[in-house]
Design brief:
two-stranded antiparallel sheet, 4 strands, mainly alpha, 62% helix, 672 residues, elongated, 36 helices
Amino acid sequence: MFTGIDEVDWASLRHAHGSAEDVPGWLRALASADTAERATALDGMYSAVHHQGRVYDSTLACVPFLFAMLASEEVPDRGCIVELLVSIGAETAGDAQGPGGPEGLTGDGRARAAVCAGAEAFAVLAGDPDPAVRRAAAGALVRFLEEPPRVLELLGRRLRAERDDCVLLALTEALGLFAHRYPAHADGALDLLAEQSAPPYAPGLRLAALGQLALRAPGRLPADLVPAAVRLLQQRSAQRLKHQEHPGTDTLVRRIRRLRPSDEEGAVLLRTLHSALGDRVDDRIALLTGQLTSPDPVDRCNAVWMSAVLFRGWRGAYDGPVRLLGAQLGSEQDRLRDAAVSVLAELFDLAAPAADDLHALVTARPDLWTYRWERCPPALGGPLKALARTGDPRAVPPLAQLLAGPAAPVGLGCEVAHLGRAAAALAPALRHRLGRVPLASPTAARLATPLLTAIRAIGDEDAVPELLRLLSGAPDGLGGRDAVAGQVIETLAELGAAAPAAPLLRTLLRTRHAAFAAGALWSADGDAAAVLPVLLRELARPDPETRRSATRQLARLGPAARAALPELRRLAGSGPARERVPAACALWHIAGDPDPVLPVFRTAWTADPRTRAPIARCLTTMGAAAAPLHDLITAEPARPRRHTADEGAYGDRGIPDDEELLRMCRGLRAGV
């Protein structure tokens, strides 16, 4: 197996961590009889020789020795070696880097060519005595043996001879991959998949075949796809549970599986089907309904996580699935209950159909009101957080108890904000905590920010003394006034209480909070002569965030800010959409002329989906002047995909931000 290995100048070759002189040891250890040695060697291969999917000159040098190991049945875990070769030869491995990529990285197709050169081995391994090898070889055949008729013949022969369920599933996936890679030869693979999707094949294999057909040939699916898939899922689950209950020695593994049951194979089957259904949201809801009503809690747990993917990516009528998520909160299985809580917390007011179940859980389990990671401060627990995010006033009493305690979660105020005026009873406790924020501490901003968010949402005008304390009593710098001033100023302005702070605000007109201070001063006394020069200065700054802050405040001044129009027109005419849109909004509020504004909005709406909500917000103020963009407003609610679906930066705000956009668009459409 290792003939010639010592003749390779490994020290001159490279991998992710430098010289490849340690690679021969890993290669030899891959063939070791010792399990720990093999595992360590495989870790070394993936962490250095094939780090993050990259291919180095040392990776290429390993390929012949890896194929040599596959030829020996005495080598254990050869399935792992096949998987390593598949990953090395993958078309995406390093290809994007090109020949000029990172040092040692090859992106010129030599890795794929090296694996293809040995691909005849995969044809032999397709019938190997080891099922793990057969499973890995199925996909390798399709990827690297570039003889489509022969590959299809091998897969069909293997499919009829195979008895191992895991290998059969791998063969099904390989047929789907074949149909994708070789469209001219796809009919034969699709015929085999259609055959597998019907009796007498086992329910799991039929589900897998339906998923591949849905991905590759939707026209060949049965008309009753979703009911059929639900029936197959239930049959598969019944067989799996019966197999688990089969009498036998009660091993440690069996006990662990009873305590933490899982079914990754089933999850993969249903994820494939959901992905294939794509924008067929009604069908996916029906499929989820079947999953969430399964008698098997493991099926329901898988469904909960799949529902999260659907909710995040697609718009739909989700009251039914949300109620079913709420029904999982009474489960005795912690994993199922916690999964449902986690998903409901992402939905905000869309979780309202589950509010009764959330309230029941919050009432029955006060121990879940908070949770604490090791050596971390307490955080608000998922059930109470999810209930508060629905805006349900029943969250107020438990939140009040937490606020009255000695260790209320720091972020509690951010969740109180979702209750708005319904949380007015919490205002005294919030003010009390705000008044105890240590002004000179590095934790001041972290402690004050959630409380300020809640006070703004409640509209607590009685909090002015505490706000002035924060603004005036702390030193500038980290943890002091500089860290929280912007939020305090914003809160004072929103409460209409900036007048008492006017002397302090004037002292901030030459700090990084100048724009906020100027805007608050305007709301206090309406003196454009005092604030307009400050905002014009900030508008000319090179920092984009400073310019955006100044732009928003200028919009508040309206016609009094006409001196800013030339610079705002310049900003609206060039640069990223996220800078052009605020400038265009300010142009409208100052000049009332839609002509320079609407073209910016139309371009940005398509170019950067993150601008759609602020655009819609501005359009609601434009009345009839917004009519030329009626087509965008009308089309948006009809789109099945959320505008936040592909934006990881939205975090857990993706769903509520999209729902807000939809509400604004419907309102605009109704007003036209």
